[in-house]
Design goal:
This protein has a single domain, classed as Sandwich (Jelly Rolls). The chain is built from four helices and ten strands. The strands form four sheets. Strands 6-3-8 form a three-stranded antiparallel sheet, with no helix packed on it. Strand 1 and strand 2 form a beta hairpin.
């Protein structure tokens, strides 16, 4: 539910509510990479240190983007990227046909966001399905030693 003053994000005709800063500041997001994240297939870019600034206006986001050099996050297949959801981040546009599939899991200190509002919790079946996909993908990922020729 959107409250007065909240900004929603629209994707595919559906409007999603933004979680309040109090919830986002206590969350940790994990991105489990099912494919390599490379310069060609559109890696995640972040503005380092911005997770400490809270929820920002569009003008503040633009101003930061002109002052802070973005860091590209290259993650190998089977790797995990951990970040705070409040960090300013965007996925780059892919320059190739190579996939960049990422499964996202978010952890929070509490399921209660605020009085009367709770986070949705994945069922055991959903978690088991996700774990199976991740383990299958990780098992087929080439080892770092083999890639570097030191194996």
């Amino acid at each position: 539910m959107l409250r007065s003053g909240d900004r929603g994000q629209s994707k595919d005709g559906v409007t999603y509510a933004h979680a309040p800063e109090s919830a986002l500041s206590q969350a940790l997001a994990l991105g489990l990479h099912l494919d390599d994240s490379t310069a060609e297939n559109g890696p995640l870019r972040v503005l380092p240190g911005t997770q400490k600034l809270g929820v920002l206006t569009d003008d503040a986001l633009h101003a930061l983007s002109t002052r802070i050099t973005p860091a590209e996050c290259f993650v190998p297949r089977g790797g995990v990227l951990a970040m705070r959801p409040l960090i300013v981040h965007v996925s780059s546009k892919s320059q190739s046909k190579a996939p960049r599939r990422v499964r996202h899991i978010e952890y929070s200190a509490s399921s209660e966001v605020q009085a009367g509002l709770e986070l949705a919790i994945a069922s055991e079946t959903e978690i088991a399905s996700f774990a199976r996909i991740y383990l299958e993908t990780s098992a087929t990922a080439p080892s770092r030693k083999a890639e570097s020729g030191r194996g």
